[in-house]
Amino acid sequence: MTAQVDPAALRAMLDRVAHGSAYLRGKLEAAGVRPQDVSEPDDLYRLPFTTKAEIRETPVLDYAAVPDERIVRVHASTGTTGRRTVCAYTARDVEDWTEMVARCLRYAGVTEQDRVQIAVGYGLWAAGVGFQSGVERVGAMVVPTGAGNTQLQVEMLGEMRSTVLWATSSFTLLLAELVARDELRADLALRIALTGSERWGEGTRARIESLLGVRTFDLYGLTELWGGGVGVECDRHDGIHVWDDNFHVEIIDPDTLQPVPAGTPGELVVTTLRKEATPLIRYRTRDLTHLYDEPCPCGSPYPRIGRIQGRSDDQIKVRGVIFLPMQVDTVLAEMPGVGPEFQAHVDRDAGGRDSLTVRVETDDRDAVGELERRLRDKIGLRIGVELVEPGSLPRSERKTQRVFDHRVL
């Protein structure tokens, strides 16, 4: 089903924003839009976009749409792509977030019988404490190991008989490889792995599921949108269900900023409908995906977006051709004997000619030619391939950088 905004919900949100935040009121006035002007779904497109730069540059208490005394918590992004963004939460924001995370868990089949090991960061990063609240809402046991410390993670997986692991895809892969190396799989009770916080491909999914004997579920979220828990795959693993009682989602062409039809890839734009402290109006996430036009056969009433394919600001032009990391994911997933992790390095020689080299993990020293051919066919560029030992590329408990542009642009 194509997501369509409810004008009444949108108008109510804008009314709260206009009364509560001088900064956001100024944005609406500059765009020539008043809350009472919103009466049709297409009125959404009259609203101004919000960017990450605006949130970074505006002090959170100046941006907030509620008085300071109503703010009960703040969280911040990891700062992977620049300065951290700080967001605030009211008590109702925290309650709504808890319920959204619990909904994600239920969609993934987590029940009060499970033991959920949360291997992500606590503190300013929104992930840990938000996930824990949702697990507690479901009634499952929380094993709050936090980020890092692989030895502790593996020990607790065994000692606590954890049935669910919640971590970034990179860190889940690292733990899966350690479990396989030490032949510990038979000692574990894991059945589900919940992953998010970074883009990951089907090759990584297949390797994690093979090594750990689990089913994986992709979650979506951003600190600016509460945190993790904005949506999740159902057990059909065909798109991510987004909780449209809290968000309106649209897909735009990142160059023209115009909406694109369902099924057409573009940039995800999100408007929060209920968030009180730091609401968002047409927030440009920079994440690339598409909207599904048809309902999911699972029967869910919530619309779906495709799994995140990359970011619009991750797109790199090499010799006039657009390169996206997900293109490498696709090739690696189809190559037996080749690991899913990679690094892409873009360089420029003294003559001004660009080159792209992809480092890939494999023991097969004869894979270079086939990888180069498949990458050239997929991307339309002649790409160099450098083979490295399995497990030698970095895995992170947070977000792993895979593209390195060494050019001086």
Automatic annotation (TrEMBL):
Its EC number is: 6.2.1.30
Which residues belong to any copy of the AMP-dependent synthetase/ligase domain?
Answer: 79-271
Gene3D superfamilies from the xrefs? 3.30.300.30, N-terminal domain of ligase-like
**Keyword Ribosomal protein found:** no
Judged by the first EC level, this protein's enzyme class is: ligase
Q: Where is the AMP-dependent ligase C-terminal domain?
A: 320-407
**Molecular functions per Gene Ontology:** nucleotide binding; phenylacetate-CoA ligase activity
A GO biological process this protein is involved in? phenylacetate catabolic process
Q: Which domain of life is it from?
A: Bacteria
Q: Which UniProt keywords apply?
A: Ligase, Nucleotide-binding
Q: In which pathway does it act?
A: Aromatic compound metabolism; phenylacetate degradation
Q: How does it assemble?
A: Monomer.
Tell me the protein family, please. Belongs to the phenylacetyl-CoA ligase family.
The name of this protein is Phenylacetate-coenzyme A ligase
